[in-house]
Amino acid sequence: MRAGKESAGAHPRRPYQWRENAVRNRSCTPGAAGEEGIIHRRLLITNAGTGPTSSLVHSLRAGDPSLVLVGAHWDRFILRSSDLEERYLTPHVDDDTYVEALARVARDSRVDALIPNADPEVAIVSRHRAQFPCRVWLPDDDLVTLCQDKYALAQHLRQHGVPAPRTVALTGLDDLEAAWESLGRPARAWCRIRTGTGSRGATSVRDVAQARSWIDYWRTMRDVAPAQFTLSEYLPGRDFSCESVWQDGRLVVVKTTQRISYFGGGDRPSGVSSNAALAKTIRDERLVEISAAAVLSLSSRASGVFSLDVKEDAAGHPCVTEINIGRVFSTTILFDLVGKHNVALLYVRLALGEDPGVWGEYDVDPDYYFVRELDRVPTILHADDLLDGVQDARTAVCRA
Prior knowledge:
Elements: E1 16-17, E2 42-46, H1 51-63, E3 68-73, H2 76-80, E4 86-89, H3 98-108, E5 113-115, H4 119-127, E6 135-136, H5 141-147, H6 150-159, E7 167-169, H7 176-182, E8 189-193, E9 203-205, H8 208-222, E10 229-233, E11 239-247, E12 250-262, E13 276-281, H9 285-298, E14 304-312, E15 318-325, H10 332-336, H11 343-351, E16 361-362, E17 368-371, E18 379-382
Parallel strand pairs: 2-3, 2-5, 3-4, 5-6, 12-16
Antiparallel strand pairs: 1-18, 7-10, 8-9, 8-10, 11-12, 11-14, 12-13, 13-17, 14-15, 17-18
């Protein structure tokens, strides 16, 4: 019997609302929400109160409600909205005193491990990891720097035989003609800022004039230098996310989903974003193979969380577009509450120096959907349940 499917006579599944008590409702939620065993540890999580960290917090509580979760953020409004046992207001992550303040929070709150959960925090905690009086489990700092530079990462992957989009770094607007030529004068290209998250500064362009206008807009309105942009091959195929955990070059677990529609995508020039409004779990061995090749190209002893964005090219071949290093996806609850293993909890166990209890597993229960919209809690439900309680009014006759 497939995980998540009831036997005859059992109560039908109902959509999973992520703010429900996952432990109490485990019998009617997909998969096994957590791992066996209780950790009894204190964790300091940055970016508290944001959507991605709220998703991580929910996954951890679903896996082990005994965890004490301490939050930190520089914005008092966002921080106050977080549902955490303790909250600490810090300087901005770009402030010179941020590391000192975060280390003081870690010491005063007696946490066992620090979990940075946004790219800026991952970068600064990685650089200063020796200054924190608790465990910090991140990939090597040179790998963090490499993966957070999208141009450098694309070059690295292609040099190591891992499929990635052809990408050209710009030094100024005058480079655009040569860059377009080097890509083979395509019908469409992808223009974006080479650092950052959330598809910041990213859109597709049809010619040099559009690329020039897009970059010049960001230069004049947002003070982003043209040298911060890249031009790359446009990938028109399906969009996937692959979340994996590694220890000393060994795969612990990997899970895969497909993004179907995008949160706020219709309001963006590109029509897409990195945040899924609708996603589903899928099984595709190609994604595991390319994820493993990408991670091991970084280091044969890779350790940490590696969350990969993968997109198909015009021929349907998967290409790695980004590696979100040292943190989980904002949709991590779909990875954690479906299937056998809770990725967030495995991450914490490894961060605490514990044996994860699983190695080399591709853990996926296909056809679970993640549905997200503004001002409502996300829902997870199986394809078989999409029309439960729904009356079809598209036909001429609709029963009351």
